[in-house]
Amino acid sequence: MEEKKFSETSRKHYMKGGDGPDSYARNSEYQKQVLISAEDLIHQQIDEHLNIQIPRFDPQNTFRIADFGCSIGPNTFYAVENIISPVKNKYEKSNQNQTPDFQVFFNDLVGNDFNTLFRNLPSNRKYFVAAAPGSFYDHLFPKKSINFAHSSIALQWLSKIPKEVIRRGISKGRIHYLGGEKEVKEAYAAQHEEDFGRFLNARADELVDGGLMALHMVGFADGDAFSLSGIQIEYEILQSCLEDMVELGKITKEKVDSFNLPHYFPSESELKALIEANGSFCIGKIAKLALPARSKLGPKGLTLQIKATLGMLFEEHFGNEVAEEVFKLFLDKLVERPALLDHKYWEHTIYFVFLKRKGVN
Amino acid sequence: MEEKKFSETSRKHYMKGGDGPDSYARNSEYQKQVLISAEDLIHQQIDEHLNIQIPRFDPQNTFRIADFGCSIGPNTFYAVENIISPVKNKYEKSNQNQTPDFQVFFNDLVGNDFNTLFRNLPSNRKYFVAAAPGSFYDHLFPKKSINFAHSSIALQWLSKIPKEVIRRGISKGRIHYLGGEKEVKEAYAAQHEEDFGRFLNARADELVDGGLMALHMVGFADGDAFSLSGIQIEYEILQSCLEDMVELGKITKEKVDSFNLPHYFPSESELKALIEANGSFCIGKIAKLALPARSKLGPKGLTLQIKATLGMLFEEHFGNEVAEEVFKLFLDKLVERPALLDHKYWEHTIYFVFLKRKGVN
C-alpha cells in the first residue's frame, strides 16, 4: 500500500457536533426527508442489481456497508437500515433464509464528532459497527472490501476552494460561484471534476466486483445552472448579512472577500459524463427525488438547519461571535421579509444516483 | 446475527480523555514500556506461528488487526506498528515481496475519547484505520474476520463489580479484594472467570482459523496472590486517602463502603486453566515481561499515571472535587513517606500471552 493514499485533503469542515439545540443531530430533519424519499428507489435498485451469487454464499461472508459523510446521526442509522433491509430480503429469498453478518463503516472527516455518533448508536441494531475517519476523496478501505457504498447530501462539499479562485481573487465580493462570473463557475466545476473523480476512483478500488453504490447529490436541473435557485437565495442572503457586518464595522471587506463556500452543484449531464469518464461503474439509475419544500421549516427552522451545516465554516473564518451574529441577521431577514420564504426559493434538486461496480463477473 | 450479541456490559469506565496534562495520552509512559518489553517476543511469536498459507496469498487479501482496549493513543499506534512489521516481513520473505493491505480496528468502550484518538493518528501510517466501539466482552466483529487480536493492560478491568460483593456488602471498608476476606477474592475470581471466558469466546468467533492473539495482562506470580504487591500498596494508599476524606467530613463512610475497584489480577495457572477450559486456542507462549520499576516515575509521575487510569472511576462515584482531593492526598502521602517509593512496592507482574486460534487448517 502506498503512503500517498493517506494524504488528507485540505477540507476541515464538518457538521455542528454534540446534541445541543444548535447541533446537526437536532437540525437535520430535511436531510432525513431526502432519505425517506429515496427509500423505494433504493429497495427497488438493490432488488434489481444486488448479485448475491458473487461470491457464492457462505454463511461466514460479511456484507460490508460504508456511509460516506455520515456526520453524527441519527440520519446515518436510518440510511443504513434502509440498505440492510432489502439486502437481507434478497438473501433470505435466495438462500433458504441464510443471511450474512452485516458490518457498517461510518465515515466522515477526522474532525467529525464520532464520540456523539457512538453514543447515539441504536441499541437494537443488528450490525457490527465501525468508524472510518478521513476524507472520502482519499482511499479509506482495503481493495475490494466493501459491498455497498452510500453517501447522502455530502458530495457537494469540495475538498477545497479552487486554487484559481484564491490565486486570482476572481470571486471578490461574492462568497460563491452562483450568480457570479463565468470563470468562477468554471474553476468550481474543474475542482468538482477532480474531486468527484477521486471519489469514484477510491470507491472503485474499495468495492467488490458487482458492488453497489447509492448517492444522494444536491444538483441543478440541466440548463438551470445559472437561474435563481434555493441554494442561490440562501447564499445571497448570507452574503448580504456579511455585507451588513462590514457596514457595522465588525469585519473588514477583505475578510469577506477571502471567504468562499466550498460547494458545487452539478447537473445531471455533468454527473453522467463524469461517471462515464471514470469507467468503473454501470449506471443503474439517475433520478430526481421529490422533496417537501424546505420553506415549511419556517424562518427559525431554516436558519437552524443552515447554521448546523454551514456554521462551522463561518466560525472558522470569522470566529464564533461574528458567526453567531451573521446567523442572527439571517433569521431577522427571513422574519422581516416573509416573501423570501416563498417555496420556489427553497427548492433543491436532489439526484438519486445508483451505480454498480463493473467487474470480471 | 443475534441481537443479544450487542448487549453492552455495564462497565462505563475509561481513561482520561483529551490531551491535557492530566490525560491518559500524556501519562501512559509505563504502558508504553510494557509494549517495548514485549517487542522481541511478539516478533518471534509471529514469525513462528503466523500461517501465511491460510488462506492462500491473494494480493487482494486484507490483514485485519484489532486492538482491544486501545484508549486514546499514542501507545496503541506503537503496538500496531509492532504487529504489522513482523507480519509484513514474513509475507515479504515468502511471497516475492507481496504484502496484503492492513486494516486496523481500534476498540474501546463507547465512552472512550475516539475524537482524540483520530486526531492523533500517525500521518505516516501504512494501514487503513477503523474504530470499533463497545465492550470487548461482547462480540464486536463478524465471524472469522480478524487475523490478529491484541490487548495490552486492559483485561484487568472486569465488566462489573461482582454481584455478591454488592449484594452481601462483604467488602465494606475495603475498596478491593486484595488483602481482604477470602470470599471477596473468590467473588472477584468468579467474575473474572466469566468475563475472560466471554472475551475468549468472542475472539474465538471473530478470529480466522489460525488467527493470532497477543495479550499483556497484569497478574500475580503464582502463589503470591495474597502477598503485599505493587498494586496492593497503590490501593491501600488510595483507601487511606478515602478514609482521610471521611475523617475530614467530606464524604460519608457509606459512600466509601459502596466503592469497589473493578479489577482482577489472575495468576499464570489461573490464566492457563481458563484458556484450556475455553478450548479454542493453542497456547504459543506465556511469559513474564521484564519491566522497569514504576517507582522511578517519582511521586508526581506515579500519581498522574494512576489518576489518568483510575481517576474517572473516582469522579463517577465521588464527583470531580472529591476525586481531585483524593489524588492530592495520594501525592502528599508519597511525598511525606519516601519509603513508600521503595521499588519493591511498585512491581507488577505482566504476563505476555500469545495464542493461536485452532481451526480446521
Give the topology.
2 copies of one chain form a homodimer.
Chain A: H1 29-37, H2 39-49, E1 62-68, H3 75-94, E2 101-108, H4 114-119, E3 128-133, E4 146-152, H5 163-168, H6 182-206, E5 207-219, H7 230-247, H8 253-257, H9 268-278, E6 281-288, H10 298-318, H11 320-336, E7 349-357
Helix pairs in contact in A: 2-3, 7-11, 10-11
Structure description:
The structure is a homodimer of 361-residue chains. Chain A has 361 residues and is an alpha/beta fold. Chain A has a single domain (27-357), classed as 3-Layer(aba) Sandwich (Rossmann fold), CATH 3.40.50. Helix content of chain A is 41%, strand content 16%. Chain A has eleven helices and seven strands. Chain A has helices at 29-37, 39-49, 75-94, 114-119, 163-168, 182-206, 230-247, 253-257, 268-278, 298-318, 320-336, and strands at 62-68, 101-108, 128-133, 146-152, 207-219, 281-288, 349-357. In chain A, strands 3-2-1-4-5-7-6 form a seven-stranded mixed beta sheet, sandwiched between helices. In chain A, helix 4 links the parallel strand 2 and strand 3 (128-133). The longest helix of chain A is centred in the middle third of the chain and has 25 residues, at 182-206. The two termini of chain A are 25 Å apart. Mean pLDDT of chain A is 88; it is low at 1-10. Chain A binds chain B through residues 1, 3, 6, 8, 60, 62, 99-103, 105, 110-111, 113-115, 118-119, 121, 123-134, 139-145, and chain B through 1, 3, 6, 8, 59-60, 62, 99-103, 105, 110-111, 113-115, 118-119, 121, 123-134, 139-145. Chains A, B: Pfam families: Methyltransf_7. Chains A, B: Keywords: Magnesium, Metal-binding, Methyltransferase, Transferase. Chains A, B: Residues 1-11 have a biased composition (Basic and acidic residues). Chains A, B: Residues 1-24 are annotated as: Disordered. Chains A, B: GO terms for molecular function: loganate O-methyltransferase activity; metal ion binding.
